[in-house]
Amino acid sequence: MSGKADISIVGCGKVGTALGVLLARAGYRIAAVADHDDSAARTAAERIGGSARVCPPAEAAAGQIVLLTVPDDAIAAVCSQLAGERAFRPGAIVAHCSGALGSDALSPARALGCLVASCHPLQTFPTVDAAVAKLPGAYFFLEGDEPAVEALRAAATDVGGKCMRIAPEAKALYHAAAIVASNYLVTLMDAAVALAGHAGIAERDALSALEPLVRATVDNVFSLGPAEALTGPVARGDAQTVRRHQQAIAQVDETLRAMYDMLADRTADLARRKRSPNDKTKTSQRKR
Q1: Domain coordinates of the chain in residue numbers?
Q2: Cα 62 from chain centroid?
Q3: What's the whole-model pTM score?
Q4: Is residue 41 a contact partner of residue 54, using CB atoms and an 8 Å limit?
Q5: Domain 182-285 class in CATH
Q6: Which of 3, 141, 239, 247 has the lowest CB atom count within 10 Å?
Q7: Residue 2: its pLDDT value, please?
Q8: Cα separations (Å) of 105 from 33, 108, 169, 196, 221?
C-alpha cells in the first residue's frame, strides 16, 4: 500500500475522534466515520473536517484502512457483524485500538482476506481535546500481520507517536501495567484525599497540598527508578510509624486500612530490593 491510504473510523468516541483529527492533520484522508449513535458520528466528522463523511458502519468498513475504535467488549462482535455482511474489502487493513486484546479478535476480517492488527496508544483519554494534545509523543504498541503493522507504524509516527512491538499473548499483562500506572494512580490519590478528609482537610486543600509531593515523587521515579525513589517510614524500617498509621486508619475506614496494609507489604519488598547489594536493577549502577 503506497502513499497515505484512506482511513475509515468505526466508533466515534474519544479515541476514534482524536485519532481522526490527528491523522487528518498529518495528511491522511478520513474517508468515512460511523457509529451506532448518529450524533456522535456527526460530531466526530465536524471535528475531523475535510472529507470525513458520516455513513453506516458497513459502508465505512469498505475503506483501505478501517479502525474499529469501539469499546473492547464490542470489538469481536462488531468485526463479526461487518464480516458477516462482507463489508470489508479483501486486502484492506482492519485494526483495533484495544490495549488488552490481540489482533486475533479480528479473525473474521482475516478470513475475508484482510490484514489485521492492533494499535494501542498508551495514553489517557479524559476528553477529545486532551487526547489530541497528549497523543503526539505517546507510545503506540502494535502487533498483527506485518504489512498492517508497518502501515499503522507509519500512521502513528506521522501523528507524532513512538512505536513499539508487543507480542499478542503479552497484551493483557501490558495493559494491566498501564492500568496500574494510570487508573490506579487516580484511585490512590482518591484514597489519599479521603484520609486527608478524615484528618479534617478539605478535598481542594488536600489536592493543593499533595500536588507538589506527588509531582516530585513521580519525577524521582522516572529519574532514579522506583527503588531509589522510595522514601518514608517503610523505606527506613520505621515499623512504629507504620503501626500508628494502621491503627488510625482502622478507626475511620477498614477498606482504606486493608489498602494501606497491601501497599505497605509491596513497599517493604521494594525497600528490601533497594537495600540489597546484589540488586542488578539498582539505579546506583546507572550512569548519573
Answers
A1: 7-168, 182-285
A2: 27
A3: 0.88
A4: yes
A5: mainly alpha
A6: 3
A7: 54
A8: 21, 8, 12, 44, 35
pLDDT band at 288 (very low <50, low <70, confident <90, very high): very low
The three cell numbers of residue 222 are 522516572
* Band of pLDDT at residue 274, cut at 50, 70 and 90: confident
| CA–CA separation, 144 and 95 (whole Å) | 9
CB 8 within 8 A of CB 67: yes
CA-nearest of 55, 9, 56 to 28 is 9
Residues in the chain: 288
**Complete DSSP assignment for 61-102:** TTSSEEEE-S-HHHHHHHHHHHHHTT-SPTT-EEEE--SS--
Strand partners, 164: 141
Domain 7-168 falls under CATH 3.40.50.720 = yes
User: How many angstroms separate the CA atoms of 254 and 202, rounded?
Assistant: 21
pLDDT value for 3? 72
- Residue 151 grid coordinates: 502501515
